[in-house]
Design brief:
heterodimer; A: alpha+beta; Arc Repressor Mutant, subunit A; nine-stranded mixed sheet; three-stranded antiparallel sheet; B: alpha/beta; Amidase signature (AS) enzymes; eleven-stranded mixed sheet; 16 helices; 11 strands; 13% strand
Chain lengths: 489, 492
Amino acid sequence: MSYVIEGRTGPWEIVVGLEVHAQVISQSKLFSGAATAFGAEPNSQVSFVDAAFPGMLPVLNREAVAQAVRTGLGLNAHINMVSRFDRKNYFYADLPAGYQISQYEHPIVGAGVIEITLADGSTRQIGVTRLHLEQDAGKSLHDQHPTKSYIDLNRAGVALMEIVSEPDIRSPEEAGAYVRKLRSILRYLGTCDGNMEEGSLRADVNVSVRKHGEPYRTRCEIKNVNSVRFVMQAIEVEALRHIDIWESGGTVQQETRLFDPNRGETRSMRSKEDAHDYRYFPDPDLLPLVLDEAWVAELKAALPELPDAKFARYQQDYGLSAYDAATIIDDMFRARCFDALVARNADPKDSANAILGAFSSKLKDLGIDWPEVLSPDWAHLLEEAAAFLAAKAAGRISNASLNTLLLGMGAEPRGAALEGLIKEREQVSDTSAIEAAVDAMLAANAAKVDDYRAGNVKLFGFFVGQVMKAMAGKGNPGLVNEVLKARLG
Amino acid sequence: MFDLTLAQARDGLRKRDFSARELTDAYLGAIAALNPRLNAYLLVTEAAARAQADAADAALARGEAANLTGIPLAIEDLFCTKGVRTTAGSRILEHFVPPYESTVTANLLRDGAVFLGKANLDEFAMGSSNMTSAFGPVVNPWTRRGDNRPLVPGGSSGGSAAAVAARLALGATATDTGGSIRQPAAFCGITGIKPTYGRCSRWGIVAFASSLDQAGPIARTVEDCAIMLRSMAGFDPKDSTSADLAVPDYQAACHRSVKGLRIGVPKEYRSEGMAPEIEAMWQQGLAWLRDQGAEIVDVSLPHTKYALPAYYIVAPAEASSNLARYDGVRFSSRTDGGDLTELYENSRAAGFGAEVQRRVLIGTYVLSAGYYDAYYIRAQKIRALILKDFTDVFRTVDALVTPTAPSAAFGQGEKMDDPVTMYLNDVFTGPANMSGIPGLSVPAGLDNQGLPLGLQVLGKPFDEETVFAVGAAIERASGFTALPGIRAGAVA
């Protein structure tokens, strides 16, 4: 059932396209050697090129190009072996050159596709129109002084990838799924940290509505939406605004709008008449960007496994449920920890249970998250968990003991003491010992045995518990069951 | 001492006939005496020049002479010089002191040159007369016979050309976007070369039109230019359009014979109404080359007539964007306003002169939505055709020879009423910028008013060596020894 909004005049379909600006992970800026770390002192990461001093010239950062190519490959997109940089001309105080270097006519990456999965488990293909490289602008700070604006150029010239979708998105949910999926791909690729609060990932949302089967109606662009939730909210309120205008006999005007999450509304930023004439033209300071086939092939060969491939592998090779697979993959670092356990020969299903259960709880206790588990300081956690999982797989310890042992992990590596911990919880699989314990228990609970034999079969669990208690939890649960059943016959 | 060419002065320094300090002091003295009349220098860096000269003497004493050790040069004020004010001839950069040294000037310093000061120019290199400088026009050291009215030195590198012609420097750096090295060299009776686009780094040179701008030397002789270019040129990773090619020994190329070279004469340059004197000098130049064994061949560059109109679309388009950074926010002069837009408007209205404003407006117009295809795209297509014209003729000839400019130096205030008349100065020089090929101007004679005229040699991309060889052959044959009235060592 597709998503529609019921208006006074009937159902409305919404049409959404997204332009996502993703800051490229790179040591230096797109056209200068200045650093790109977030949160540095204002104007401390600015070269003369970034500040557009006279005679300064841009030199393209090879790593930023590699990141764009990786991203294009990760989006199953066409890589354009020849692309070009253009100047987008406009005046603003945080745009030192008076133009932004961008790729207007000939982007580095052409058409691609992103598959999204919705809550009901269905999937949809959302077309990617293009990806291009461009410079970020600096920041204007208007709240530092009553009459003056402050300019911070740290961000000026940082490489951005603008990833433009086709207008294929039909609901707020799909938009949310698209942004999350794109963010996940970028993170897996290591091309953007996807951190929306820090502004590393921002979305411009194009929204229009139409009756089923109609051509597109006028759209509005909502600029710089900085969370998945706000993207979904903005689409909904903007669509309702459009429907209200159309149903009142009005006409939606093409314009650029801003979303105000506090008020839950969008408001006009500038109308089409006020739109800038950017006077795009090829940047004469830069040559066309020509990629080498072999280099692109090298980048392709070195791509990490991406979420879709992982999702398929976890189900096919490891027999995980779709839900468990998706949950593990949702956090790239969690998936890496899972892969690390499996790589240490741990059973995949037990590993998944541990990762989603006791191991995860333990991390909360320790106040750390999955990325830390992959760091040298916490490397012992994976070693210990793998040892416990191996013991479980070998039938040496029960699942309950496994969880107890996982919850017992801490900041200090146990090293040689590990084997002793497992031994302490080792199961007794010696049939004669189990038979002795069962017999003793049955003898001590003769009345209950009669009760059981009279039909109160629920008591079986009680008997198991009593035997296990008597064996200090180490009795092999399978064998205990077997012996009990035989005795109670 | 002022009669020495750069090559001769270099020999004298190496033989210790005189010291670098003596040479520099002599030039500083001449500047002090004559610059008030010529306005060729906007800034004289005396103390730094003397220190550099002393360092040169120390190097010479150690026997460590580099290509230009101790040679006093003028630096066009478009080249950023570390710690030394660089104005681009504009009010908007009146107080700009770059914290960096342009690659070309850094190369010259590496090779031991002494910088006397910063040479005047048309504002942002936009002009053919040096009348657009915010700091007053430069006076051409030449005057018409029996007429003391001041003439223009040409432009935009008018200060560089006047300084060299009046012997206020042994050579000068200059830039050429549509003829700004070659036309002033011709107007001042000296030599200048615009090398192939990409030969000299543009890093640290205030940009006018990035796809056309190219630095080069202005000096008294072809050989002097060759010596200077050797130091100025070279690959620079900081300029993405810089050519990663070895720099040849240009000085040696000046001594190559032109025997057997095929010299093309483009018929489209023989415009209606060309001054008979210019035509005669052109024929004379070709005859000199024929006498030295070159073969003269008539060729056609069919798209020549479109070059100038296309140039005056491309150059302003790029300039309108390149000059957007002068907005009053950072390094440029600021004139405050009520809001940001007013600050821009006021700063740029006060900071830019009329010619710069005109070109920014033209450039903004031709890039605008709805006009871009009709102007900019078509101009780029014409540009490709112009390059094809040259590529085609260079399959059959080694170099082309044409006049440098359609006239000799004109008077200050002449040709000022109509910008298009002024733009016609670039008619013979602009195509080399549109196609990127190298072009040299060498003096070939005087007109009947006693003013110098120049011939232009155009060559294949990155074949400056043939250009130098042909230029040197014309220079040898012309025996041009005339000197301007205003010059160091002569009281006018």
